[in-house]
Specification:
This protein is mainly α and 171 residues long. Helix content is 81%, strand content 0%. InterPro entries: DUF6773. Pfam families: DUF6773.
Length: 171
């Protein structure tokens, strides 16, 4: 009779733990994205060599490796399930920032020597097209990666919920 009185509700605890893990996963994803953007901007825009990027690369490799190890070990979703619309907005915002920074680099750092008015307008047009094509290209690449992670996370969360339901049905 008193056996069930002091028993913790397993479903609520696991749901709370899963929600906390999602917030941790979101924070870790943000950090990995920030480090990856710093590496991209330093490598492409500032033309930094690999020897200047070793700290960021080490953080990305060790942090990403630890993250994927803990995800697989603890059966936590790879990324928090947010709507696909939010994911696409975030990906294209990052791509636009990356494209504009590449365009600025090409216009102002590579071709800034003694330009006349015609050359300046030509360079601004080139800046626009380089930025646009870089943003579209990186948007497609980042978008495909984000979509794959999004689908993987939905699939993994569905499997976790099935596992929780099976365990609760057995109790």
């Amino acid at each position: 009779m008193f056996k069930n009185l002091f028993k913790k509700p397993k479903m609520k605890d696991e749901m709370l733990e899963m929600k906390q893990n999602q917030y941790g996963a979101r924070a870790f994803n943000m950090m990995i994205i920030i480090v990856a953007i710093v590496i991209l901007i330093k490598a492409v825009v500032l033309e930094a060599s690999i020897s200047e990027l070793w700290v960021e690369l080490l953080l990305l490799i060790v942090g990403g490796g630890y993250y994927f190890y803990s995800v697989l070990k603890n059966n936590v979703p790879f990324m928090p399930t947010i709507s696909l619309k939010q994911t696409i907005r975030l990906v294209f915002l990052i791509s636009a920032i990356f494209g504009i920074s590449v365009g600025i680099r090409n216009v102002f750092f590579l071709y800034a020597d003694n330009m006349s008015g015609t050359e300046w307008s030509y360079q601004m047009m080139m800046f626009f097209f380089i930025s646009l094509f870089t943003a579209i290209g990186s948007g497609v690449i980042f978008g495909a990666l984000a979509y794959c992670l999004y689908q993987l996370s939905k699939w993994q969360e569905k499997n976790i919920m099935k596992k929780i339901e099976v365990e609760n049905a057995e109790d």
